[in-house]
Amino acid sequence: MTQVVIPDKLFFSISETSKLTGIKSYVLRYWESEFNVLKPDKTTGGQRRYRKKDIELLLKIKELLYVQGYTIAGAQRYLKKEKKASEEVAVANVIGLKNELKEMLKIIGHKE
Question: Is the whole-model pTM more than 0.85?
């Protein structure tokens, strides 16, 4: 899959997102209804505003569906599993940091 260069902007319209990702606007709207993790911001007028993280997620979904041959249900499971693994790593990092800070406090003689 070709590498997409995402411009350094805060928000992208649905048409800009469609051009960047190569995914039709109606497909983007459909995927929003199928993938709970995909939630672009909306203006007061209801216009979708995609962020860089949304575009990266769309490209991941596109790869899962069109390149790797996942079904929508399979891609949903994959993304859910990937999110859970990411959260577990984050928790482990926080626990490790907490332990390091406790050790530093011991070294400087601070009582808990």
Answer: no
